Amino acid sequence: MSSNNFLEFFKPFESYLPEVIAPTRAVPYNQKLMWTGVTLLIFLILSQIPLYGIVSSETADPLYWLRAMLASNRGTLMELGVSPIITSSMIFQFLQGTQLLTINRENKRDRELFEVAQKVFAILLTLGQAVVVVLSGNYGRPSDLGIAISLLLIFQLIFASFIVLLLDELLTKGYGLGSGISLFTATNIAEQIFWRAFAPTTVSTGRGTEFEGAVIAFFHLLFVRKDKKRALVEAFYRQNLPNMFQVLSTVAVFLFVLYLQGFRYEIPVKSTRVRGQVGSYPVKLFYTSNTPIMLQSALTSNIFLISQILYNKFPTNPIVRLLGVWGVPTSGGSFGSGKAALSGLAYYLQPPFSAKEALTDPIKFMFYVAFVLGCCAVFSKTWTEISGTSAKDVAKQFKDQGMVISGKRDTSVYKTLKGIIPTAAAFGGACIGALSVGSDLLGTLGSGTSILMATTTIYGYYEIAAKEGGFTKNLVSGISELM
Amino acid sequence: MSTAVPPGGQRTLQKRRQAQNAKENKLKQTPTSARAAGFGGSSNNILKIFTDEASNGLRVDPLAVLFLAVGFIFSVVALHVIAKMTGKLF
């Protein structure tokens, strides 16, 4: 019996939900790598196959800001991406964090029902989102499509999301190295970055055709142009398409984030149960990893979305105009959607397109920096409380495991942790925010947020792989010395 | 100190007799129900029932997930191809 009435409600669904069988014994590292690779391949193929039955997808993309985070591709089977799964797990984590939903972690029945409830919710959300996406005329008006094609579209979207749900479960159950969701997101971002660097597509500008990919264009210009010096300048500074400078800054940000990942404060601990067992409890600088930046970008994305919808509906309403005025910017580049906020609150929350824009409107820039840094710090601190990694929780964990900080009394564990963890969380959050702002200013390929998300996820995977024993000891220590 | 039992003798004979009896009994026994007679293809139904009891949901093998995904991808591609073909032909 579960200790919660709300969870009991999901009991009847339990027998109908498919569930990947957990491996009965530990899966060897090579097999884990293989499962991860195959799953990733399937996800990538899913995100490249266009939906059957689309008439047009010419309308402005309403979810442009959310695409990178949700690993979704427009007009493909991955239209919904991982959004239903993320949303449902977020909701449940929130319910649990705010104690609206109390579950007993020791109770097996509770844990099972909690997972079932999450899954049922994710499937319901998929259903709702698929219907909304099709009926809102994303792929042409439903009356033009016909009822059969509309149903077919909905079915395709639901089934694709269902497969992603199963693939994620497969990875998290122990066949893969880590969580599927973060892996898919990181892959999507990495794919975009690589596409911008190596795209073989050409764009015809007034002066002839140019390659879209920065590296390819660099070599093309060097070989084709007579004046090599000007070709170099062109390849490094072209404004309309990805350039080499952006590639270099992306690499620089990537390396810098990796360098910062190694920062940690090691608290020396010893066991009270087994004498002589000493170790250290590391508190990383990026204590909450990429969660604060994800939450921050989710928040701003939603503000942009609401503001855009409201502006399209009521372009003259003063309150709506205060929230944001949207249009095509006169100077500087814009993101792929073509539209950007021109004034209002949304304009101040919008990352600067270039360093030039930051200089021309310093007040906006200062506001933006303050907002991002503050937001990330607060979110990071709050997240430690919600996710059960706050000083109090860690102190309790220490006590349960019979660990004390060496050289201190066992009563002072909480006091010591209280001095370190909230500071690390808040400062780490602010650092992540600063990195995001910095990479936006440098003009990396892809937004700063997405690069940070990809890098932290990849590093997390690397850590897991190193722990699993995928690399030789030498390599790990070599890299950590290098860091 | 343990004494090794010499090979052969009373005990081995007994064992042989028992095995023989069991074999004969098995041959003589007729199926008592349609199920036991292998009605549903194979007769190891008990094992199936046990695995069913152990799980309280629809349990999927990870390989099945992969096949499901690949099948879905192929069916969508097939839909595209069919749409192209019919457009060409008619």
Topology summary:
The complex is a heterodimer of chains A (483) and B (90).
Chain A: H1 5-8, E1 18-20, H2 29-46, H3 67-70, H4 83-97, H5 108-135, H6 142-145, H7 147-175, H8 180-198, E2 202-205, E3 208-211, H9 214-224, H10 228-237, H11 244-261, E4 264-271, E5 278-284, H12 291-313, H13 318-323, E6 325-327, E7 340-343, H14 345-349, H15 355-360, H16 362-386, H17 391-401, E8 403-405, H18 413-442, H19 448-468, H20 473-482
Antiparallel strand pairs in A: 2-3, 4-5, 4-8, 6-7
Helix pairs in contact in A: 2-7, 2-8, 4-5, 5-7, 8-19, 9-10, 11-19, 12-16, 16-18, 17-18, 18-19
Chain B: H1 9-28, H2 45-54, E1 58-60, H3 62-89
Structure write-up:
With 483 residues, chain A is mainly alpha-helical. Chain A has 20 helices and eight strands. Chain A has three domains: 1-199, Preprotein translocase SecY subunit (Orthogonal Bundle), CATH 1.10.3370; 200-241, no CATH class; 243-473, Preprotein translocase SecY subunit, CATH 1.10.3370. Chain A has helices at 5-8, 29-46, 67-70, 83-97, 108-135, 142-145, 147-175, 180-198, 214-224, 228-237, 244-261, 291-313, 318-323, 345-349, 355-360, 362-386, 391-401, 413-442, 448-468, 473-482; strands spanning 18-20, 202-205, 208-211, 264-271, 278-284, 325-327, 340-343, 403-405. Chain A has a three-stranded antiparallel sheet. In chain A, strands 2-3 form a two-stranded antiparallel sheet. A two-stranded antiparallel ribbon of chain A has the order 6-7. Chain A is globular and about 75 Å long. The N and C termini of chain A lie far apart (50 Å). Chain B has a domain at 61-89. Helix content of chain B is 64%, strand content 3%. Chain B has helices at residues 9-28, 45-54, 62-89; one strand at residues 58-60. The model of chain B is unreliable at 33-54 (pLDDT under 50). Classes of the chains: A mainly alpha (483), B mainly alpha (90). Chain A binds chain B through residues 14-21, 35, 38, 42, 45-46, 49-52, 77, 156, 159-160, 163, 166-167, 170, 173, 175, and chain B through 55-62, 65-66, 68-70, 72-73, 76-77, 79-80, 83. β1 (18-20) of chain A pairs parallel with β1 (58-60) of chain B. Chain A: It is found in: Endoplasmic reticulum membrane; Membrane. Chain A: Residues 41-75 form the Translocon Sec61/SecY plug domain. Chain A: InterPro entries: SecY/SEC61-alpha, SecY_CS, SecY_dom_sf, Translocon_Sec61/SecY_plug_dom.
